[in-house]
Amino acid sequence: MINVTKTFFPPIENYQNQLQRIWKNEWLTNRGELLLELEDKIKNYLSVSNIIIMTNGTLPIQIALKILGNYGEIITTPFSYVATTSSILWENCKPVFVDIDAEYLTIDETKIEAAITPKTTAILATHVFGNPCNVEEIEKIAKKHHLKVIYDAAHSFGVNYKEKSIFNYGDVSTCSFHATKLFHTGEGGALFCNDAELHHKMYYSHNFGHNGPLDFFGLGINGKTSELQAAMGLSVLPFLSNIIESRKEVVEYYNSNLNFAILKTIKIRENTEWNYSYYPILFQSEEQLVKVQKVLNENEIFPRRYFYPSLNKINYVNGISMPISENIASRIICLPLYFGLQEKELALITTIINKEIS
Ligand SMILES: *Cc1c(COP(=O)(O)O)cnc(C)c1O
To answer: What's this model's pTM, rounded to 2 decimal places?
Structure first.
């Protein structure tokens, strides 16, 4: 069976070695030695100056919205994973969708200003499949209208834009370390924020608001992660360059073997060092997608319809029509892409697709 992704498992001895440290320390959570070490190693790996690791990639979005959203209208993309929209509603804010760019699949920055009202407090946009939003334009618009910018960068571990980590852009960026993501800790995530005061708020918010054992800075929740997850992160991180290299080979195989007279893939933004996190292809129609998917499934190949449906169409969302996002969502699929995917498996996938579309 070939799935859309496959969790990277480091050699079990590496994980066991990390576990030994935990047993020796007899310290299992509350920002222990392994977690602090993982934060340091990630800061070095990405060349970022700060990070707060959390239990998953949704909580940092919620914390950012709690602090910056202020129960207002949040301008957001309809083309993302459901967590982007559900977090807005969960934090009692209102999602205001702005359609996407048909090539980059990120929020169309040229349509943002028209959606701003006196109630708008922030922009929450996703670097879709690790492809950066137009961060410069978004920053300009945000400055002009005094809005905060939060990036759902769940897919963007290792992505650089203009020679620096994509996590440096916006007021806050969040990432997911879920088992299906490029870098993982089983469940996990992180928040990145360069402003010292804001970082302090985000930091105490993820730890019940504590200021020492008896005092509180303010309102908080529990976003801390345990040493067991940090142990997984420390075991996976040394393999990251290999993981990205292996994924790059898969992407290059698809690029040179799929029939792009008929299919399309995502356009990566200029000046981006991409992480090869997903391989989306766009069919000409949903019928074509369904037809190909059926044959792939019969051959035990399971791509995923990321993202479907367009988030403005979810039943609990009162969204207006987003024609580009809905159109793209109806005919896009992510192909299998992971460390160690074999060339003969890739040959089978591409042969089936090319045959079924022609
Ligand atoms: C995976 C993902 C999330 C949520 O991350 P979790 O770690 O699963 O909570 C949020 N946004 C996007 C775009 C994602 O793909």
So the answer is: 0.97
Domain boundary among 238, 253, 281: 238
**pLDDT over 70, % of the chain:** 100
User: Which residues constitute the domain of residue 319?
Assistant: 239-357
Do 80 and 110 belong together in one domain?
Answer: yes
Task: Looking at the structure, tell me whether residues 111 and 121 fall in a common domain.
Answer: yes
C-alpha to C-alpha distance for 352 and 293, rounded to whole angstroms? 10
Bridge partners, 54 (sequence order) = 189
DSSP 321: P
H or E segment and range at residue 323? helix 323-331
Residue 217 CA to ligand 1 center (angstroms) comes to 28
Mutate to test the pocket of ligand 1, among 56, 81, 107, 277 (most ligand atoms within 8 A of CB): 81
Question: Cα of 302 to ligand 1 centre, how many Å?
Answer: 20
Residues 230 and 255 in one domain: no
Encoded tokens for 176: 């997911």
Ligand 1 atom closest to the Cα of residue 84 is 11
Domain boundary pick from 218, 238, 258? 238
pLDDT (tens digit per residue) in 173-205: 999 999 999 999 999 999 999 999 999 999 999
Ligand 1 binding residues, C-beta < 6 A: 56-58, 80-81, 83-84, 126, 152, 154-155, 176, 178, 189
Q: Which atom of ligand 1 is nearest to the CA of 58?
A: 9
Residue nearest to atom 10 of ligand 1 (CA): 83
Closest to 325 measured CA to CA, from 341, 314, 309 = 309
Inter-axis angle of helices 240-257 and 343-357, nearest 10 = 30
